[in-house]
Specification:
This protein is α+β, with helices and mostly antiparallel strands and 495 residues long. Among the domains are: 119 residues, no CATH class; 169 residues, Orthogonal Bundle (Cytochrome-c3 Hydrogenase, chain B), CATH 1.10.645.10. The protein contains 14 helices and 17 strands. The chain has a 6-stranded antiparallel sheet with strand order 3-2-1-15-16-17, with helices on one face. The two termini are 36 Å apart. The N terminus is likely disordered.
């Protein structure tokens, strides 16, 4: 299947179209299309064009600094990197089990992160497309228009995200790039005042989370024939699951299902990930292409994230989210739900699950305990894996006798989905663009497919300054400019 990304080769007389940057996603990337004279797409690629060097940056740093350093990868999902690195540093510290309070504080922090990140992506970045249409007027495809036409829905989205950020703040001291994880535990307790502060709004948050599930479900089902096929592709699904197959976003073991829903492996220790997953490098992007070794790079690619997690798990431990999961799975019938736009539906189920788990944890008397740190026998290697909002996140570190990091390997969720992202773009091009006059509205279909995955491109690339969008159509051989559309940094379009 992945060969379809390379079919254009060096075919002559093709025109090149560039979408740069992709908008309403975290980070910066671009898409290139090669089209023939009849505007049929011959090749499409998603490029991560700036180098991500964190595996090199952190070499030579003391291992206990890593949870703080790596969260600078991103301003949207820093907590995910903080926690994954924290788990790896626990292993290096020889700690195999945290205190009950430290463990539950990390869970609370993680669910706050899932809640705020999912709310941000769905309400702020994706809802304009779902509510107004993929090719609606560009001036309506933004959060301001959502606030104007759907004020209650927009308010719920803003307050859901704010609540998740407040969970992060009371634990880490700041909403972004705070501190929490230290080797073997956490660096401060949760006060009773902060616990009561969070408890005051949790029932309302759960109600709004239920509304978010309904909104995402209804947006999907109201245009089911189109949404089911838009960027649709069959794939494998990789995620963590708990010991009994339950949804587990913080720990668990690896499970892989194929497109029919059959288990290919289950309860695999994530510390053995290097024997399961291999990464392919291609010359036109800095982002790698992971695949399952035993299947091979041609068909061994897979998807991660909310769609994979809801498809993979056997049940959810909270009642409201489990009811929502059952409806989702029933929709798929005998197979997993493959529709790419169903990512949004699955994402809101996880928002509801996170809200329910936050309530449970805040009512747990151990959450305000004082026993926060465990010590162990120092090791030279640590691997930490969690389910970040966008998918399975791997942090792997090796440390020398001088306590300095000697080697680091990170596989972020967006990297896992790289092949699927490119495949989805190709399908959308064939479905929505072939033979049509190129316009901003038409090209937004490509971005809709990309946004469904909630890619965090900043975890794979770093850029400075504002980046305008310039789309050019040129003859490949002569370089002659045929047409162009330019979007300034203030959003204005001109030729």
């Amino acid at each position: 299947m992945s060969n379809s990304l390379e079919t254009a080769g060096n075919a002559g007389n093709l025109k090149r179209i560039v979408i740069e940057p992709v908008s309403r996603v975290e980070g910066h990337g671009k898409v290139t299309l090669l089209v023939d004279d009849d505007l049929h797409v011959r090749q499409c690629r998603l490029h991560i064009a700036e180098f991500r060097g964190f595996e090199r940056f952190i070499q030579g740093r003391p291992y206990w600094e890593i949870p703080i350093l790596v969260q600078r990868l991103c301003g949207i999902c820093p907590v995910s990197h903080h926690l994954a690195a924290g788990k790896a540093i626990d292993m290096i510290s020889g700690v195999t089990q945290l205190t009950e309070t430290a463990y539950k504080l990390r869970l609370l922090l993680h669910y706050g992160q899932i809640l705020q990140s999912h709310a941000l992506h769905f309400f702020h970045l994706c809802s304009p497309d779902l509510l107004f249409g993929f090719e609606s007027d560009i001036n309506s495809r933004n959060i301001v228009a959502v606030i104007g036409r759907h004020p209650q829905l927009a308010m719920q989205g803003v307050k859901l995200r704010k609540y998740g950020q407040e969970v992060i703040r009371v634990i880490c001291g700041k909403r972004i790039h705070g501190t929490g994880c230290i080797p073997g535990g956490m660096n401060k307790r949760l006060s009773r005042e902060d616990k009561n502060y969070l408890l005051a709004d949790i029932e309302q948050i759960i109600l709004w989370a239920e509304c978010a599930v309904k909104t995402a479900r209804d947006c999907y089902l109201q245009n089911e024939p189109f949404h089911k096929n838009f960027a649709g592709l069959r794939s494998h699904y990789l995620s963590l699951v708990g010991e009994d197959g339950e949804l587990d976003l913080y720990h668990g073991k690896l499970r892989l299902k194929d497109a029919s829903g059959s288990l290919l492996f289950d309860q695999q220790d994530y510390c053995d990930y290097q024997n399961l997953i291999q990464e392919e490098v291609k010359p036109w992007t800095y982002m790698k292409f992971p695949f399952i070794k035993t299947i091979g790079k041609e068909s061994g690619w897979y998807r991660t994230g909310p769609l994979a997690r809801i498809n993979n798990c056997d049940y959810i431990t909270t009642p409201l989210a489990e009811t929502a999961r059952q409806e989702f799975i029933a929709y798929g019938g005998k197979e997993p739900v493959h529709a790419t736009l169903a990512y949004h539906w699955a994402r809101m189920i996880e928002v509801l699950f996170s809200a329910e788990k936050i309530k449970q944890l805040l009512h747990d008397p151990m959450i305000t305990g004082n026993d926060l740190i465990v010590e162990g026998k120092r090791q030279n290697e640590g691997i930490g894996v969690i389910e970040a909002p966008r998918g399975t996140l791997f942090h792997h570190y090796q440390v020398g006798e001088d306590d300095l990091v000697s080697k680091a390997n990170l596989i972020v969720a967006t990297t896992h989905n790289n092949t699927a992202l490119n495949e989805s773009i190709r399908i959308v091009c064939n479905q929505q663009i072939n033979g049509r006059e190129i316009s901003e509205a038409v090209l937004n279909n490509i971005e809709v497919a990309i946004r469904a995955y909630d890619p965090c491109l900043s975890c794979a690339t770093h850029a400075m300054g504002k980046m305008p969008l310039k789309v050019e159509m040129r003859h490949q051989q002569s370089g002659e400019l045929i047409s162009q559309i330019i979007k300034d940094t203030d959003g204005r379009l001109h030729n």
